[in-house]
Specification:
By secondary structure, the protein is α/β, with parallel strands linked by helices. It is built from 16 helices and twelve strands.
Length: 431
């Protein structure tokens, strides 16, 4: 006879009633976790680690720890790029006449040279009555080469006459040749300094001395294998008021005079500075990139307002920007907001046009001389530090100018310029 099983349900019921269910609920979650992880043992060690990390809050709960997971320190991409550039060799090449250098020079020192303290300064400029203002550069920590020369006429070759045009150039073809000579002369100075010291620069920044910088030159503007230029103010070609490139691309970009015969052989005719610049890069297979940059070219020239289709807009120095090398002056803006849109939409986009949307541009009426209170406007826009430098130049004496130039010369590796007394004497009265 089969035994009866009616006692088993009674036994199970009694066993269940005697269990401490609080203990069961405490044991069950970690036990389930261990089973889950054991079933995942076929995965890679990395995957297993990631899964454990996923349960980090549970792990902390069971261990009694409340400490948050610590992630390794990381360097943001811009900071990493800046650190790389600080270890690179950078040549900063300034070209052009000193005109308003008391306004632009301190901004170049602060926003470019001080921003990249490992950079070497190269200055190539004609001797004139404003050259004494270059004494401001005595504060620069690393001055590689200075050449201030008496300009003479450059003979015009047949190829130059064929390739270049005098149209829209204030001083005709001769003006273009003088500018090209300034730019390529700086490259010659850089190559000589490299040869003397047996190294090659990683980067060359070429800018005009009449450029006012409202913000630092960003590390993103150093693009390997490409030459960087500002957008706008293209005049049918490429904006040539500033360029940043590695040594290879810069060598092509700065060879403004020596590449004219090649442009002639390629059949180019009647080029202005901007179209010749673009032809240089394209014929030599140098890729370029445009990026908006926080500088403008301070000008004393007069321009009609409002400008016609091929006219030149003059930005107020107070414009939020970036102005990417547009012409500017310190003024009380006469055109903002919708007015700017009306003016800029009339301009030919392939000529003097510049970016203006989102309130980045304010316009001056530049048909006459600078307004009488321009100094007050500049000081307010530029800030106390740059205002102090402007005032220092305004009150500079011939004696102090000579002393500053002598100090600057003593810290310059290669110096090719007239005596300090002569440079200062052209713009300041000897005491």
């Amino acid at each position: 006879m089969l035994k009866s099983n009616h006692h088993k349900p009674m036994f199970l019921t009694k066993w269940a009633s005697d269990l401490d269910w609080r203990l069961v609920f405490l044991i069950l979650p970690p036990l389930s976790l261990l089973v889950f992880l054991s079933l995942s043992s076929s995965s890679s060690a990395t995957t297993a680690f990631n899964r454990v990390s996923t349960f980090a809050p549970l792990k902390s709960f069971f261990s009694g720890s409340t400490q948050k997971p610590v992630s390794p320190p990381s360097i943001s991409s811009p900071n990493r790029r800046k650190d790389e550039l600080k270890r690179s060799r950078i040549a900063v090449c300034l070209v052009g006449g000193a005109r308003r250098f008391e306004l632009t020079g301190p901004s170049i020192v602060e926003k470019i040279l001080n921003e990249y303290p490992n950079s070497d300064l190269f200055l190539h400029s004609p001797l004139d009555r404003d050259a004494f203002k270059f004494s401001l550069l005595k504060v620069v920590s690393k001055i590689a080469s200075v050449r201030i020369f008496e300009p003479t006429a450059i003979p015009e070759t047949e190829s130059q006459v064929r390739v270049l045009t005098a149209r829209n150039s204030p001083n005709g073809i001769q003006g273009l040749l003088q500018y090209f000579n300034l730019v390529e002369g700086c490259l010659t100075m850089i190559k000589a300094f490299q040869s003397l010291n047996n190294f090659t620069y990683d980067w060359i920044v070429r800018t005009r001395v009449d450029g006012y910088w409202s913000a630092p030159l960003d590390p993103e503007n150093f693009v390997p294998g490409r030459y960087l230029v500002p957008p706008g103010s293209t005049y049918g070609g490429l904006n040539d008021r500033l360029g940043v490139g590695d040594f290879t691309t810069s060598t092509v970009a700065l060879s403004r005079l020596s590449l004219v015969p090649q442009l002639d052989s390629a059949g180019f005719r009647q080029l202005n500075s901007e179209t010749a610049f673009r032809a240089q890069l394209t014929t030599q297979n140098v890729p370029y990139v445009t990026r908006r940059l926080p500088f403008c070219v301070v000008t004393d020239r007069k321009y009609d307002f409002p400008p016609n289709r091929f006219g030149v807009p003059v930005a107020a120095l107070s414009s939020p920007g970036p102005l990417s090398g547009a012409k500017c002056r310190p003024c009380t803006a006469v055109c903002e907001g919708p007015c700017v849109a009306d003016v800029m939409l009339m301009l030919d986009k392939g000529w003097s046009w510049t970016n203006w949307r989102n309130g980045t541009l304010q316009l001056c009426d530049a048909h006459s001389e600078w307004e009488s209170r321009w100094e007050t406007i500049f000081d307010r826009v530029a800030g106390k530090k740059l205002a102090a430098e402007r005032k220092r130049v305004k009150s500079l004496t011939w004696k102090k100018c000579v002393a500053d130039f002598d100090e600057m010369r003593g810290r310059t590796v290669n110096w090719d310029a007239p005596a300090a007394a002569e440079i200062c004497g052209l713009g300041l009265r000897p005491q």
